[in-house]
Specification:
homodimer; alpha/beta; Isopropylmalate Dehydrogenase; two-stranded antiparallel sheet; globular; binds 3-isopropylmalic acid; magnesium (chains A, B)
C-alpha cells in the first residue's frame, strides 16, 4: 500500500475537535490500500498569540511537499478579523493555487429541512478560489478621519476564470449535465461579461451540458424556493462564499457541508475542510458535529483516487444521519458511530 | 390640500402593470389631504429600443424637480445586462444621491413561509445606495483574449458610510433598538474595518441601541434559520442587494417586498419601487401581484409625511393578505380588493 503524507492543520475552536475524527475515519477506511502519515502543523490563533507567527515561509514550504491537507477551522474572536483568515487560510488557498473550491450540498435522509424533501437537493458549487475580491487588492487613505476612503478591488483574469469553468463543465458531464452561472453581470459588467463569455465559449465544447445564468440576488431566492433546480453552480469567490453558506442552512445546517480547495493541475497539494468555522461559542465542549470534517476526508480520498473508500465514508455518513442524525451526541460518539459502520 | 408632483417611471414588464395600481391606491387614500399630479416618464426598454435614449439629461433634470418618484421595474431580456440597470436605475439612485435603500421585511398573517411564523419576521434592511461595488469603477484590458483582466472596484467613503449609519441608528431608536452590521470584514479588511469603526463610533451616541456584527455568509444562514434575530440590518450596497432578495424568499416571495431609495437630506426626490424585477416570464398576463408596488406607495407617503395614510395602506394590505393572500387573482383584482378596504 502506498504512503501519503497529510498535513493536518486542525486550527482553532472546534477545528481541533473534529479533525481527529476525520483522521480516524481516514485510517480505518483505507487500512488495506493506503497508509497516511500525518504531519500536524501548529497554526492558528494559539500559535499567533504565542509567538506572532501566522504561516512562516518554511512551514508553507513543508506543506507544499505534502500529498494533501486536512484543515479544521481558522478564526478566533481574540484576534482582529482578517489577520488569520487572510494570513493563513486564504494565504494557503492562494499560495497553493487552489483554484477550485468545491462545495457539494445534499439533503440527507433523516435531516429535516423546512424547505425540501431528501432527494430534492443535490448540487455542487464550483467556487473560484484564487481571484475576485479575495485578492487582497485594495487600500485606504486618511484612515480614521472624516475624509477616509477605503477600496476593495476584484481582480478577474481570463486565465483564472477559464480553468475553473472547464473544471465545472467536466464535473457537469459526470452529473446531471447542467450548469448555472451565478454572478451580478447587470452591475459588475466587466467581470460578469467576461465570466459569461468564457462560459459561452467553453460551453460550445460541451454540447451535452446546458447552462443558464442567475444574478446572485435571484440565486439566493431559488436557493430557498427551489433548490432542486441546481446541479452545478459555477460562481466567483465571494458569491460562492455566500451561496454555500445559504445552501448549508437550507440542507439543515453547515454541520453537513464539506469542501475541497483543489489545485486541479496537481502542482500543489489540495486542502479539505468543513465549511463551518471555528464556532467559539461551542468550542471545548465536545459537542461539535464532526460530520462535515469526515465528509471532507472523503473528498480528500476521492482526490487521491480512492473513490471506493470515499464512497464507503459517504455511505456510512448517510446511514448515520438517516438513523441518528437528530440525536444529540458528543463529537467522539458521532465518530465512533461512523467508524462502526465502516 | 397640498399638491405633490410624482414622477412615474413604470418601466418594463410587470412594472407597467403594477404601477397603475399603486397610483390608484395613492389617489384614494390621500384624497382629502393631498393631490398627486403624476408625470409619466417614458423610460426603459421600449424607449431604448425605439430611439436609443436611456435617461436624457433634460428628463433627469425634470425628475429632480419632482417631489417623489414611483418606479415599477427596469430590465428586459432583449437588452444586454447592465445597460438599463446602470444607465437608468442606478443612474437615478446615484444622481439623486439616494443613499439609504430602505427595505422592510415582514411575514404577514396569511402567508405560509416554510421557515417562520407570522410575527417572527419583522426587520428592515438599511442598504447603502450610492457606493461600494455599484460605483461603476472598474474596467477590462485585452478583452476577448486569453490575457483578459477585468476588475471591479468597491469605493467606500467615511462620508457615505457615516450618513447611512446615522440613519440606521435613528431608525433603530423607533424600533426594537438593535442593529446588525453585515459585511465581510475578515476578507474585505479595508472597507469592513471602516464600516465597523464608524458603527462603533456613532453607536456611542446611541447608548440605548445595541449592535452586533455578522459576516455576510453567516447572515445568509441566520436569514434562513433564525430571521427573528434581526431588527435593523445595516449593510453595503451589494450585500444589501443579496440579503434583501433572500429575505423576500423567506417571507414568502418578493411579491410582498417594497423599497425606498431615500435621499434623507431631501436635496433630491426619493424613489419608491418594489424589489421584484420586470419578470418578463409573466409580463403581459395581468397576473403580477401589485402588493409590493402598493407597499412602496405607502413608503412614499410616509416619506412625504403622511404617516396615517401610509398606515391605512399597510393595514389594508395586511387585511387583504390575511384573507385572500393565497388566492389566484388578477393584478387588477388585487388592486380592487385593496382599494375596497381603504
Ligand atoms: C473564513 C473565510 C475567510 C472563508 C471565506 O470567506 O472563504 C470562509 O467563510 C469559507 O467560506 O471558507
Ligand atoms: C436591477 C439591479 C441593478 C438592482 C440592484 O442590484 O440594486 C436590483 O437587483 C435591486 O435590488 O433593486
Amino acid at each position: 500500500s502506498t504512503t501519503y503524507r497529510i498535513a493536518v492543520i486542525a486550527g482553532d475552536g472546534i477545528g481541533k475537535e473534529v479533525t481527529p475524527v476525520a483522521q480516524a475515519v481516514l485510517d480505518k477506511v483505507c487500512a488495506d490500500e493506503a497508509k497516511f502519515i500525518y504531519e500536524p502543523f501548529d497554526l492558528g490563533a494559539e500559535r499567533y498569540l504565542r509567538d506572532g507567527a501566522i504561516l512562516p515561509e518554511d512551514e508553507l514550504e513543508r506543506i507544499k511537499s505534502m500529498d494533501a491537507i486536512l484543515l479544521g477551522a481558522i478564526g478566533d474572536p481574540r484576534i482582529k478579523a482578517g489577520i488569520l483568515e487572510r494570513g493563513l487560510l486564504l494565504k494557503l488557498r492562494f499560495a497553493l493555487d487552489q483554484y477550485v473550491n468545491l462545495r457539494p450540498s445534499k439533503l440527507y435522509e433523516g435531516v429535516t429541512s423546512p424547505l425540501a424533501q431528501p432527494g430534492d437537493i443535490d448540487f455542487v458549487v464550483v467556487r473560484e478560489g484564487t481571484e475576485g475580491l479575495y485578492c487582497g487588492a485594495g487600500g485606504a487613505v486618511r484612515r480614521n478621519t472624516p475624509a477616509e476612503v477605503a477600496t476593495e478591488v476584484s481582480i478577474n483574469t481570463a486565465y483564472g476564470v477559464e480553468r475553473v469553468v472547464r473544471y465545472a463543465f467536466d464535473l457537469a458531464m459526470k452529473r446531471r449535465k447542467h450548469i448555472t452561472l451565478v454572478h451580478k453581470k447587470n452591475v459588475l459588467v466587466n467581470a460578469g461579461d467576461m465570466w459569461q463569455r468564457i462560459v459561452d465559449r467553453v460551453g460550445e465544447e460541451y454540447p451535452e451540458v446546458s447552462h443558464d445564468y442567475l444574478h446572485i440576488d435571484a440565486a439566493t431566492i431559488f436557493m430557498v424556493s427551489k433548490p432542486s433546480r441546481f446541479d452545478v453552480i459555477l460562481t466567483d469567490n465571494l458569491f460562492g462564499d455566500i451561496l454555500t453558506d445559504e445552501a448549508g442552512a437550507v440542507v439543515g445546517g453547515v454541520g453537513y457541508s464539506a469542501s475541497g480547495n483543489i489545485n486541479a493541475s496537481n502542482e500543489y497539494p489540495s486542502m479539505f475542510e468543513p465549511i463551518h468555522g471555528s464556532a467559539p461559542d461551542i468550542a471545548g465542549q465536545s459537542i461539535a458535529n464532526p460530520t462535515a470534517a469526515v465528509l471532507s476526508a472523503a473528498m480528500l480520498l476521492r482526490h487521491l483516487g480512492f473513490d471506493a473508500a470515499a464512497g464507503r465514508i459517504d455511505a456510512a455518513v448517510e446511514a448515520d444521519i438517516a438513523q441518528l442524525g437528530p440525536t444529540q451526541r458528543s463529537t467522539e460518539q458521532v465518530g465512533r458511530d461512523i467508524l462502526a459502520r465502516l
